[in-house]
Design brief:
Blueprint: H1 17-42, E1 58-61, E2 66-69, E3 76-79, E4 83-91, E5 99-102, E6 106-109, E7 118-126, E8 132-141, E9 146-148, E10 150-153, E11 159-160, E12 166-170, H2 177-182, E13 184-189, E14 194-199, E15 203-208, E16 217-223, E17 228-230, E18 233-235, E19 238-245, E20 249-254, E21 259-264, E22 267-273, E23 286-289, E24 292-300, E25 311-320, E26 327-331, E27 349-352, H3 363-369, E28 376-380, H4 400-405
Parallel strand pairs: 2-8, 9-18, 11-19, 20-28, 26-27
Antiparallel strand pairs: 1-3, 3-6, 4-7, 5-6, 7-8, 10-12, 12-15, 13-16, 14-15, 16-19, 17-18, 20-21, 21-22, 23-28, 24-25, 25-26
């Protein structure tokens, strides 16, 4: 028998060294897998709820990128399986849109949106595990076919008298005055309380309690772009204007005495003889504001209900005091002795003048040269009624309490 050969019929008493190591490794791996499997069963399959997507779901209507969206009833934000925690809506100028959440899951604006305006919406909701879901969208509202604007006075950069209100006349009758007025702001420096009042459905005026102080800077901001002033009719206007209050000049016409006292900055600077409205055509009483100035104009009685009683083509130095036709103006056709002695006009206040208005020394020429749009002319002791606040810019013929009350 050769050395190193196994003995025939002999039995192995144990595994080889390499086979034993492999068996041990397999056993350890089986134990490890079994242990891990048992741990997964205890956790219910290994799902971590904190790492699952939110079930809240956020829906924004209209869809992202939508055009020609209606300004009323189209915008809604909702969560199908959660509650809304934040909804922010802004227009393209960064102005927020106020809204209301119903039932915790539905948000809608409390008012109408603006036409021809781009809005962005950011909304967040949470589910019952407090997991968040967010959504963003932008959309643009419709471009209107029917529009309106406000024609305002005074003009930007103008220097005016202390009685000048801010007056805005709209090109269409307004049926939602509150919404339109929200788009208009009048401020002053130095600051004073200012209130607006509507006359009819197409005029909105603003004034302080008393005449403006000289030197006041007044600013009018109009932001009516996309504002629905009446069903289907939208504003298109954005304006920023400012004007300055000049020196104070208030002139008082005493119809009984047939003279006018001109007071500037609290001091009387001139007394002028006048002729006011005669019997049956008396001049209104009250505080009247100069709203227009014309070096020469035509005055035709037919335009103010006097038929063919007069038609003067070249009335000099005319300044309008009312919409209904009251002026303070130069008069060359009455004898000079009329002024200060007889009331003979059709309701206007006449000052002596020369035909053509070329003589700067006449009372009418002097008063015209020394008057501003917005100066006040007060008439007293006439046998007529007090002029209505809306007849011209004569807003001072209403108490502050009534002005602010809107009634």
């Amino acid at each position: 028998m050769q050395q190193g050969q196994p003995v025939p019929g002999a039995r192995r008493t144990g595994p080889s060294r390499s086979g034993g190591v492999l068996a041990l490794l397999l056993s350890a791996l089986l134990i490890l897998v079994t242990a891990c499997g048992g741990s997964e069963d205890k956790k219910g399959g290994g799902t971590d709820p904190d790492k699952q997507p939110s079930q809240a779901g956020v829906t924004i209507t209209p869809k992202d990128g939508a055009k020609d969206v209606a300004t009323d009833g189209a915008l809604k934000v909702s969560s199908s399986r959660g509650r809304l925690t934040s909804v922010k809506v802004q227009d393209d100028k960064g102005n927020p849109v106020e809204g209301k959440v119903t039932g915790g899951s539905v948000w809608q604006p409390v008012g109408k949106l603006r036409a021809a305006t781009t809005y962005k919406v950011d909304a967040v909701a949470v589910d019952d595990q407090l997991r968040e879901s967010a959504r963003h969208a932008t959309f643009t509202t419709l471009v209107p076919e029917n529009t309106f604007v406000g024609r305002y006075t005074p003009e930007d950069g103008q220097t005016v008298g202390v009685g000048m209100p801010v007056s805005i006349n709209f090109t269409r009758g307004i049926t939602d005055p509150e919404r339109v007025q929200q788009g208009i702001k009048v401020t002053a420096e130095p600051s004073v309380p200012i209130a607006g009042r509507w006359f009819g459905n197409d005029r909105l005026d603003f004034r302080p309690e008393k005449y403006w102080k000289p030197g006041t800077k007044v600013t009018l901001d109009i932001d009516l772009k996309g504002v629905e002033g009446r069903p289907g009719v939208y504003g298109t206007q954005t304006k920023h204007i400012s004007f300055t209050i000049g020196r104070s000049q208030v002139s008082t016409v005493d119809v009984r005495a047939k003279e006018m006292s001109v007071v500037r900055d609290g001091k009387k600077i001139k007394t002028i003889p006048v002729t006011a409205g005669g019997p049956g055509t008396e001049t209104y009483n009250g505080q009247m504001v100069i709203s227009e100035k014309h070096e020469v104009t035509r005055m035709n009685g037919e335009t103010v209900g006097f038929g063919g009683e007069y038609d003067i083509a070249d009335v000099p130095h005319a300044m309008r005091l009312s919409t209904s036709g009251t002026f303070i103006h130069g008069n060359y056709w009455s004898g000079r002795s009329t002024f200060g002695s007889r009331n003979a006009s059709h309701g206007c206040i006449g000052l002596y003048d020369q035909r053509g208005g070329g003589d700067s020394s006449t009372p009418a020429a002097w008063f015209y040269a020394n008057s501003l749009i917005g100066d006040v002319v007060t008439v007293k002791n006439s046998h007529d009624e007090t002029i209505a606040p809306e007849n011209g810019l004569n807003v001072w013929n209403m108490s502050w309490e009534k002005w602010r009350s809107g009634r």
